[in-house]
Design a protein that fits this description.
By secondary structure, the protein is mostly helical. The protein contains four helices and two strands, in the order E-E-H-H-H-H. A hairpin with a 2-residue loop joins strand 1 and strand 2.
């Protein structure tokens, strides 16, 4: 099961998650996860914003930016988001189990 990050902001429940579809969509828009270290000012907010695509696709960018600005433990948050982003990629490249 895919990893999710759940929280409440201004009385609204949010579920952040990455799927194969949303990772593909981010890549098509130019997101490159490997650039996080070299371009953190653009890639970290984009990673956070991309996590909204699976369940909150039509949330306004201004709201997402406001939520991001209020998040605490951003280093831990980014680590969790990176792990969540990688999960669908790892599922794609894993070897299938062979029947016994």
């Amino acid at each position: 099961m895919a990893k999710q990050l759940k929280f409440t902001f201004k009385d609204k429940e949010y579920v952040l998650e990455f799927t194969r579809r949303t990772v593909t969509e981010m890549e098509k828009k130019g997101f490159v996860a490997a650039e996080v270290e070299n371009k953190p000012m653009s890639t970290l907010p984009a990673l956070f914003e991309g996590a909204f695509l699976a369940h909150h696709r039509f949330e306004k960018k201004e709201v997402i930016n406001e939520i991001f600005s209020h998040m605490t433990n951003k280093e831990e948050l980014i680590g969790k988001l990176a792990e969540m982003y990688n999960e669908p990629i790892m599922a794609l490249v894993e070897e299938p189990e062979r029947p016994v």
